């Protein structure tokens, strides 16, 4: 049976429940996923004096072929993008600046240090997002940055964040699509603190200074990312969820929810509807925590589907900015991007092929038997046939055939580095 024939059969099955499959594919095509560049080089970046990864995060594995230059990283991203249906965005960290062999301190970074990325994004019709890098640096050696008791250190990181917002503004202006500039800091303590309030007061003041700098909001959107704990900040993190939720609501900033940054039994899918009642927009770092914030490659698991369902059934595709955040050095890094991003898109498609209005009505009517029965039956509806047809229509490999492209690229390019 051809892809088209299987698709037509699947379409009939979904349409019986009022799902317009063609419309769903049209909508899906326009949903951008922000793909994080740092999966390609284990968050090393291209600074002249490379620092060891810090900030309580870790990349494990030594799979060969890691990108070590901006050209290699861009080439790897292009390969992954050629295997992923749709038009997407690329998310950069400040450590991916290109400074022509010159040492430029992070607080002195300028748009010109990202000209190559912008040129490349234009050529590939991509939007760019950005993050200041407040880790892997001697001024973050004790795990404190924007909440540091030392004013000079705080000042350095405040200036880095302001510089980053200006770089974000430049991306947005040049590319005609606003850049999401997201601030994540590692600040916290290994052991039980004797004062939780003072560091939070300092972080609040630092953020106020960062956001006081004049940056055009139509080109740059500010986000702040919370965390529960990291390696070395097990007992206390200054930028907790409650801290940033309060700050974002009061100051009209976006909260960025990383799916690995909460208690293991807490789910981000359950937070979206609550937060959207009070904020117009929020952002995601979709990751897969395994026992801790391990940043495993995103799989099509229950929580990913639930996350996508919450975005789709609440009509929030324009309100939730979807980005990814995982890093695995134990497998081919281009394959990691491809698997994780295809899964995110698959989850959105799955959500769009669910008869959400009907299921909502069943709940309103108190018909929980039919609600559960249908949710379960839809898990084995011919979703795969629609996905395969979509990939084919979008000109990317169908099913696992994309692996062939990875194997050739690994042999011809990655292993020769
Ligand atoms: C590279 C990091 O993952 C990123 O900056 C941050 O978003 C994070 O999730 C830290 O745990
Ligand atoms: Mn994150």
TrEMBL record:
<keyword id="KW-0464">Manganese</keyword>
<protein>
    <recommendedName>
        <fullName>L-rhamnose isomerase</fullName>
        <ecNumber>5.3.1.14</ecNumber>
    </recommendedName>
</protein>
<dbReference type="GO" id="GO:0030145">
    <property type="term" value="F:manganese ion binding"/>
</dbReference>
<dbReference type="InterPro" id="IPR009308">
    <property type="entry name" value="Rhamnose_isomerase"/>
</dbReference>
<comment type="function">
    <text>Catalyzes the interconversion of L-rhamnose and L-rhamnulose.</text>
</comment>
<dbReference type="GO" id="GO:0005737">
    <property type="term" value="C:cytoplasm"/>
</dbReference>
<dbReference type="GO" id="GO:0019324">
    <property type="term" value="P:L-lyxose metabolic process"/>
</dbReference>
<dbReference type="GO" id="GO:0019301">
    <property type="term" value="P:rhamnose catabolic process"/>
</dbReference>
<feature type="binding site">
    <location>
        <position position="293"/>
    </location>
    <ligand>
        <name>Mn(2+)</name>
    </ligand>
</feature>
<keyword id="KW-0479">Metal-binding</keyword>
<dbReference type="InterPro" id="IPR036237">
    <property type="entry name" value="Xyl_isomerase-like_sf"/>
</dbReference>
<comment type="similarity">
    <text>Belongs to the rhamnose isomerase family.</text>
</comment>
<keyword id="KW-0684">Rhamnose metabolism</keyword>
<keyword id="KW-0413">Isomerase</keyword>
<dbReference type="Pfam" id="PF06134">
    <property type="entry name" value="RhaA"/>
</dbReference>
<comment type="pathway">
    <text>Carbohydrate degradation; L-rhamnose degradation; glycerone phosphate from L-rhamnose: step 1/3.</text>
</comment>
<keyword id="KW-0963">Cytoplasm</keyword>
<dbReference type="GO" id="GO:0008740">
    <property type="term" value="F:L-rhamnose isomerase activity"/>
</dbReference>
<feature type="binding site">
    <location>
        <position position="295"/>
    </location>
    <ligand>
        <name>Mn(2+)</name>
    </ligand>
</feature>
<dbReference type="InterPro" id="IPR050337">
    <property type="entry name" value="L-rhamnose_isomerase"/>
</dbReference>
<feature type="binding site">
    <location>
        <position position="261"/>
    </location>
    <ligand>
        <name>Mn(2+)</name>
    </ligand>
</feature>
């Amino acid at each position: 049976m051809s892809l088209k024939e299987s698709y037509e059969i699947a379409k009939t099955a979904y349409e019986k429940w009022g799902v317009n499959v063609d419309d769903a594919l049209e909508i899906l095509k326009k949903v951008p996923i922000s793909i994080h560049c740092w999966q390609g080089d284990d968050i090393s970046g291209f600074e002249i004096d490379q620092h060891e990864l810090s900030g309580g995060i870790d990349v494990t594995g030594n799979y060969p072929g890691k990108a070590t230059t901006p050209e290699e990283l861009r080439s790897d991203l292009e390969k992954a993008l050629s295997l992923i249906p749709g038009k997407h965005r690329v998310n950069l960290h400040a450590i991916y600046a290109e400074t022509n062999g010159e040492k430029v301190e992070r607080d002195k970074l300028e748009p010109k240090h990202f000209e190559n990325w912008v040129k490349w994004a234009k050529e590939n019709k991509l939007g760019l997002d950005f993050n200041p890098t407040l880790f892997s640096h001697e001024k973050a050696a004790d795990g404190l940055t924007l909440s540091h008791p030392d004013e000079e250190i705080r000042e350095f990181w405040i200036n880095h964040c302001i510089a980053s917002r200006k770089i974000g503004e430049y991306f947005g202006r040049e590319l005609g699509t606003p850049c999401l500039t997201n601030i994540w800091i590692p600040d916290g303590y290994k052991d039980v603190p004797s004062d939780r309030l003072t560091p939070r007061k300092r972080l609040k003041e630092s953020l106020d200074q960062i956001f006081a700098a004049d940056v055009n909001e139509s080109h740059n959107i500010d986000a702040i990312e919370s965390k529960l704990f990291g390696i070395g900040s097990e007992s206390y993190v200054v930028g907790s969820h409650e801290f940033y939720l309060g700050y974002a609501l009061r100051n009209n900033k976006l909260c960025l929810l990383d799916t690995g940054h909460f208690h293991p039994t807490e789910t981000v899918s359950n937070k979206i509807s609550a937060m959207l009642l009070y904020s117009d927009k929020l952002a995601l770092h979709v990751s897969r925590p395994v026992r801790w914030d391990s940043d495993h490659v995103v799989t099509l698991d229950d929580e990913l589907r639930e996350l996508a369902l919450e975005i789709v059934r609440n009509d929030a595709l324009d309100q939730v900015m979807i980005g990814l955040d995982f890093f695995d050095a134990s497998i081919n890094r281009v394959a990691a991007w491809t698997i994780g991003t295809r899964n995110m898109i698959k989850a959105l498609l799955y959500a769009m092929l669910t008869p959400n209005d009907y299921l909502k009505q069943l709940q309103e009517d108190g018909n929980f038997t039919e609600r559960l029965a249908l949710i379960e039956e839809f898990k084995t509806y011919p979703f795969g046939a629609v996905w395969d047809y979509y990939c084919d229509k979008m000109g990317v490999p169908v099913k696992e055939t994309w692996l062939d492209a990875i194997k050739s690229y690994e042999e011809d390019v990655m292993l020769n580095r």
